Amino acid sequence: MKPSTLMEVAQRAGVSTATVARVLKAKGYVSDVARSRVEAALKATGYRPNAVARGLRQQRSFTIGHMLTAITANPFFVNVAHWAEEAALAEGYKTFLFNHDGNPERERLGAERFIERRVDAVLFTNAVDSRNVQLLREASIPVIQLERAATIEAPSIRVDNQTGALEAIAHLAELGHRRIAFIGGDPNLIRRGDSHFTSVEEERLAGYRIGLRQAGLPVDEALIRLGLYYSIADGGSGIEGYKHMKALLALPERPTAIFATCDILAAGALQAIYEEGLRVPHDLSIIGFDDTLAANLAPQLTTVAQPMEDLGRLGFRTALAAIEGESVPNDLVLPARLVLRRSTGPAPHPNSRR
Amino acid sequence: MKPSTLMEVAQRAGVSTATVARVLKAKGYVSDVARSRVEAALKATGYRPNAVARGLRQQRSFTIGHMLTAITANPFFVNVAHWAEEAALAEGYKTFLFNHDGNPERERLGAERFIERRVDAVLFTNAVDSRNVQLLREASIPVIQLERAATIEAPSIRVDNQTGALEAIAHLAELGHRRIAFIGGDPNLIRRGDSHFTSVEEERLAGYRIGLRQAGLPVDEALIRLGLYYSIADGGSGIEGYKHMKALLALPERPTAIFATCDILAAGALQAIYEEGLRVPHDLSIIGFDDTLAANLAPQLTTVAQPMEDLGRLGFRTALAAIEGESVPNDLVLPARLVLRRSTGPAPHPNSRR
DNA sequence: TTTAAATGTGTCATCGATGACACATGATGA
DNA sequence: TCATCATGTGTCATCGATGACACATTTAAA
Questions:
Q1: CA at A38, C1' at C2: how many angstroms apart?
Q2: Rounded to whole angstroms, how far apart are CA atoms A205 and A226?
Q3: Angle A129-A306-A319 from CA coordinates, rounded to 5°
Q4: Residue B87: exposed, middle, or buried by beta-carbon count in 10 A (0-12, 13-18, 19+)?
Q5: In chain A, which among 177-196 make CB contacts under 8 A with chain B?
Q6: How many CB atoms within 10 Å of residue B134?
Q7: Could you tell me if B260 and B288 are in contact, meaning their C-beta atoms sit under 8 angstroms apart?
Q8: How far is CA A181 from CA A260, A279, B55, B105, B339, in A?
Q9: HSE (CB half, 13 Å, CA atoms) of B264?
Q10: Dihedrals φ, ψ of A184, to 5°?
């Protein structure tokens, strides 16, 4: 049995649809008699408003689109999306997810679908191509960029990657580590859209360099390992982290600590370390980034946690503000937070090295 | 600038909306002149059909709802949802996700939202309360249950958990293991809805028992560790797996192999093993279930892979069949598959035990 | 007592796409 | 020559909720 309509409820209650609407919206004048008749009819029919009809009439679908990548490979994006959805739910909104896996054509397809569905706004995590942002804006759909911005044309909410990385390095330096390696993605490859944007990888690498300098440590370029790891085709299994770690362990003078720009990379690194029979943090300390897999690894990983909940919630709230025509901050930067767990410890004595 | 309407396109082309519709649908008679005029107008206005209006008119939203749990804690559900979405996309559908985290009230809320949004069908992964399935069915919305069924009232697509578990045990027995432990969730707690349904945990435990019997091994109840692990409040960090493993390692006669009913539990177990300084698979073999975290752990985990892609794709295809009034199989059981990685090896010699 | 404000209820156009239907015109066959 | 069919195009009701508006009636204020 199809859900009943306002009209059916009205007929059953012996009133007009307007009266039923007044009861539902709890605004306007309704006599007690009419109200109770309507309420009875509402209950009897199990009326549920038709969001599709409302959407057409109000020119507002109460739906927002959410673009993301690597949905099966990196829990980060799903987490952000989850909190955005949670915030949306409280306001009567639903989100549509669209996974583009870093492919601009897919992203474009997603943008087109969002336009057809008449979403009220779109959240981009990890925006790829600024033209797709533009496409939505031309259709009068507000866009909020999360975590990784493709263009300054739309507001963004980001994370202070540099300070996050810096704190990680400071922590390791404090533990006495002097040879700290960096494992990250290719900063050029991951720089997206308008070229004047710094990528998150660049920011983390900058934090690493500044951290070393502040600790009075030299930068050894041999300890900086970059390479694309957003190759989802590989299964997102952190294979890049594994390879980089293998290379680092083959160095004549090994690092005693590793900073990886992503928990997945760190997980791969841990596999290499495990294979070599080294212990963490006894022989080697390691810090990840994101706080996605960190708590599931052995040992539990010290990591730079991204504020995924804030990113999601603020993302939605900002989108809502934009929908309602309020002015929104153009670029918000949230802090990252170093979470200490069990993968970092004092640097080993040079002579105790295996 | 709002996307333009059919009417606007028609006016610009100097024809009626019906003609534009004929061009768009590529059916009916349209003269070449009219067609090219319409096509020009279509391009000039950048027309995009309004899915909301179409939904109202066709009484079909081209949207399906997807209920799931533990979206931030267990990648399994997101994976299934991803493949369902992928299949949906190809047919012009979009999915709405709703995360209930095992809470029946949340699940009900989700069902109500789905009804209001007039989704054409609903996929349930891990259905909690059969009344919520009923709610949707009363609103004439077809329901397909995936992986874990709450009721026989709606068709389900499941996985052969018993055979999956059995193969895991057979593999371990073949490697010479004679003391194989089981770490799982509470089978009673996880049995859901209509009580005559066996839970996935029961099925996996049954597979374990049968596997042992077939290998001629005795069942030692001390090696069977059950307890709720779907406590998302704990952060889903596999803390239960960790505790169970600790207890198993404290046993006077330790197991040499572990079968965990979920990769997250296995990850927790690995943490306990790591803490004790034992090596996998040298000292201890371990097999997980799901193939979610498995490839990210150290060492990479041998696991019973669930057919997440098939579950998702078939789920959508079955839903689509149901929407179109075709008959659908009432209960489909898909095979699980043992994936060999690096966490299983020959049983250690009894005298080489540390 | 008269007027203004508060209270209560119904009608109807609107949002945009769709598809049934009507109505053309020209070609073909009987 | 008329009937039939293919071709080509336009009109309009419909899906369901909404909110502006009109129109009552009652109450309060002047």
A1: 37
A2: 10
A3: 55
A4: buried
A5: none
A6: 16
A7: yes
A8: 8, 17, 55, 49, 33
A9: 22
A10: -150, 180
Structure tokens at A86: 């949670």
Which residue is associated with the tokens 């399935």? B133
CA dist., res. A323 & res. A141, Å (int): 8
Q: Which two tokens stand for residue A324?
A: 């309602």
- Give the Cα-Cα-Cα angle B333, B143, B187 (nearest 5 degrees): 55
Residue A57 (CA) to nucleotide C13 (C1'), in angstroms, measures: 11
Over residues A202-242, the pLDDT tens digits come to: 899 999 999 999 999 999 999 998 876 554 444 455 788 89
Structure tokens of A244?
């980089």
pLDDT of A92 higher than 50:
yes
Q: Please, are residues B93 and B316 in contact by the beta-carbon 8 Å criterion? A: yes
Burial letters for A331-340: b for 16+ Cβ neighbours within 10 Å, e otherwise? ebeeebbbbe
Residues B309, B283: contact at Cβ < 8 Å? Answer: no
Which of A140, A296, A323 is most worth mutating to test chain B (most B CB atoms within 10 A of its CB)?
Answer: A296
Question: Cα A192 to chain center, whole Å?
Answer: 16
Q: How far apart are CA A268 and CA B187, in angstroms?
A: 34
* pLDDT tens figures, B54-101: 999 999 999 999 999 888 888 999 999 999 999 999 999 999 999 998
Q: Looking at beta carbons, which residues of chain A come within 8 Å of B53?
A: 56
For chain A, strand residue ranges (E) read: 63-68, 94-99, 121-125, 143-146, 156-159, 180-184, 224-226, 257-260, 285-290, 302-305, 331-334, 337-339
